[in-house]
């Protein structure tokens, strides 16, 4: 690749202190070297953000909205380049990469339409109480490798609209698309308002414990999320943690197995299963179990797996070698304790390819059901009684999403209200939009991304409370 990727620090594109290779997971070849920031460069980025933030916050909010729209336009203009690099480094099919880039532009456009509300909670003869939301200051934004660009959409647009400055860090196996984004938007924003650095998985703690960082927005695994929370504790920093999921889907006895199998196959294996709120375990009523599994088998048998850069591929490789090895351990456990009835073939290299695996004969208590597999392996658990399925679905530490599938909408609704998850879908899964809040329940995270709630998560609520009993202050207090 002839492009030389750079860090963005204080409005200028910089070399790193060293470089490291980025591997294409479809070929295991090095795509290029990326710049790795030193701790001193991280400190420079935080200092630049701190310096630029007050002036950025003082701009009228429409000017910040306009900057968001310009960023969206720039992303849309560069969709081919961004999608191409995303496929090269992440592995996903090019069509999915296009959707991801469009999704990022859509997030900038959505947040550009929002206003930070000022709510009048009380306006009585004696007092006026207003609720304002102010920026927090410097935001540290950390992303994982499954949706390197889309997840920026939960962080950068709301943080910027609210008047914060940001230091953004991608995962070390997928840094290129984020670095390119930084380069493309560098001239749209005042120097220092957005900084993009990259690391070798070694600057996260320095970012989250940095005394000049007021807010952390982190997406990644539960185990790293715990470290982030501990590291942020000293400064009592504001936190949004979007962590791992193990979403259950409950399929009731009255569904059309073909229709539901198609939808669940898509929601389980999209991005090769590397989606926080993919379907990761399916509880199917015994009446429709065999028909449902037969449909999944035929879907798995016909799904084309290969290099995401090829045109006719539905699923790309697993993103990195560590995850590829972990999935093979799960596959071995599934073969020992249950049955892999379709797929699960580790394709001859190069590339980290596993064909979509449909697994039967397991239940709660098995690692492939209890843990987040984060890959193309889907356990299908048989149940006889709906109460049994509900308690199995709720039994784990995860609480990102869940779904119920039924021809009886009233019954599905009733079950949906009993599932412990931030989002519960009925007769669908993974229906996401920038305007729909994405809360995390239990150990799947802390706080809410997306929507107005996701915007307010980048602010400090401030109450203005005016006394006006004697009339002295009332005029000034009125808006
Ligand atoms: P990870 O936790 O290993 O890494 C995520 C990011 O954290 C990377 O940028 C990494 O460099 C950084 N990091 C590493 N150590 C750190 C530390 N001590 N402090 C701060 N940052 C540190 O996660 P991953 O393997 O890249 O991503 C997969 C996980 O992300 C899965 O569990 C998946 O479910 C989750 N995820 C959640 C959501 C959501 O919205 N809830 C979305 C996507 C992915």
Mind sketching the topology for me?
Layout (H helix, E strand, L loop, with lengths): L6 E3 L2 E3 L3 E6 L6 E7 L2 H20 L2 H17 L1 H12 L3 H19 L6 E5 L3 E9 L2 E5 L13 H6 L3 E5 L6 H10 L8 E3 L7 H5 L6 E5 L2 H12 L4 E5 L4 E5 L5 H13 L9 E7 H17 L18 H17 L1 E4 L14 E4 L6 H4 L6 E7 L2 H9 L6 E5 L3 H8 L6 E4 L11 E2 L5 E2 L1 E2 L1 H6 L2 E9 L6 H4 L2
Parallel strand pairs: 7-8, 7-10, 8-9, 10-11, 12-13, 12-17, 13-16, 15-16, 17-18
Antiparallel strand pairs: 1-2, 3-4, 5-6, 6-22, 11-20, 14-15, 19-21
Helix pairs in contact: 2-4, 3-4, 3-6, 9-10
The site of nicotinamide-adenine-dinucleotide has 30 residues, from helix 7 and helix 8.
Descriptive account of the structure:
With 479 residues, the protein is of the alpha/beta class. It has two domains: 7-243 and 440-464, Aldehyde Dehydrogenase, Chain A, domain 1; 247-426, Aldehyde Dehydrogenase, Chain A, domain 2 (3-Layer(aba) Sandwich), CATH 3.40.309.10. 37% of the residues lie in helices and 22% in strands. Strands 14-15-16-13-12-17-18 form a seven-stranded mixed beta sheet, with helices on both faces. A six-stranded mixed beta sheet has the order 9-8-7-10-11-20, with helices on both faces. It has a three-stranded antiparallel beta sheet with strand order 5-6-22, with no helix packed on it. The chain starts with 6 loop residues before the first strand and ends with a helix. Residues 142-147, 151, 169, 171-172, 201, 204-205, 208, 219-221, 224, 227-228, 242-245, 276, 372, 374, 400, 440, 445 line the site of nicotinamide-adenine-dinucleotide.
């Amino acid at each position: 690749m002839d492009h030389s990727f750079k860090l963005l620090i204080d409005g200028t594109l910089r070399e790193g202190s060293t470089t490291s290779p980025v591997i294409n997971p479809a070929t295991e070849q090095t795509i290029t070297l990326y710049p790795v920031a030193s701790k001193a460069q991280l400190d420079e980025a935080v200092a630049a953000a701190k310096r630029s933030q007050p002036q950025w916050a003082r701009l009228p909010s429409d000017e910040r909205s306009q900057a968001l729209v310009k960023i969206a336009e720039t992303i849309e203009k560069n969709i081919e380049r961004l999608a191409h690099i995303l496929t090269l480094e992440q592995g996903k099919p090019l069509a999915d990469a296009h959707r991801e880039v469009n999704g990022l532009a859509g997030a900038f456009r959505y947040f550009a339409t929002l206003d930070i509300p000022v709510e009048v909670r009380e306006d009585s003869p004696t007092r006026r109480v207003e609720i304002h939301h102010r920026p927090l200051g410097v935001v540290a934004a950390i992303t994982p490798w499954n949706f390197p660009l889309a997840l920026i959409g939960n962080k950068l647009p709301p943080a910027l609209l609210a008047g914060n400055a940001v230091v953004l860090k991608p995962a070390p196996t997928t840094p290129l698309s984020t670095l390119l984004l930084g380069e493309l938007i560098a001239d749209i924003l005042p120097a220092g308002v957005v900084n993009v650095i990259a690391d070798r998985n070694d600057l996260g703690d320095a970012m989250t414990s940095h005394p000049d960082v007021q807010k952390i927005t982190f997406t990644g695994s539960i185990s790293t999320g715990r470290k982030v929370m501990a590291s942020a504790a000293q400064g009592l920093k504001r936190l949004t943690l979007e962590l791992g999921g193990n979403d259950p889907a409950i399929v009731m006895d009255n569904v059309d197995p073909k229709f539901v199998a198609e939808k669940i196959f898509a929601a389980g294996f999209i991005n090769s299963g590397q989606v926080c709120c993919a379907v990761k375990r399916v509880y199917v009523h015994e009446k429709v179990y065999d028909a449902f599994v037969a449909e999944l088998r035929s879907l798995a048998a016909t799904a084309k797996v290969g290099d995401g850069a090829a045109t006719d591929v539905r699923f790309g490789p697993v993103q990195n070698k560590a995850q590829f090895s972990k999935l093979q351990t799960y596959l071995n456990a599934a073969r020992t304790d249950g049955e892999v009835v379709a797929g699960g073939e580790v394709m001859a290299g190069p590339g980290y390819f596993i064909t979509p695996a449909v697994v039967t004969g397991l239940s709660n208590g098995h690692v492939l059901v209890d843990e987040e597999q984060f890959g193309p392996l889907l356990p299908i658990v048989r149940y006889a009684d709906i109460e049994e399925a509900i308690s199995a679905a709720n039994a784990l530490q995860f609480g990102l999403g869940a779904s119920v599938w039924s021809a009886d909408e009233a019954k599905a609704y009733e079950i949906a209200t009993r599932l412990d998850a931030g989002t519960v879908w009925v007769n669908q899964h993974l229906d996401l939009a920038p305007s729909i809040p994405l809360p995390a329940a239990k150990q799947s995270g802390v706080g809410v991304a997306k929507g107005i709630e996701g915007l307010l998560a980048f602010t400090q609520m401030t109450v203005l409370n005016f006394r006006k009993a004697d009339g002295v202050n009332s005029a000034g207090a009125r808006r």
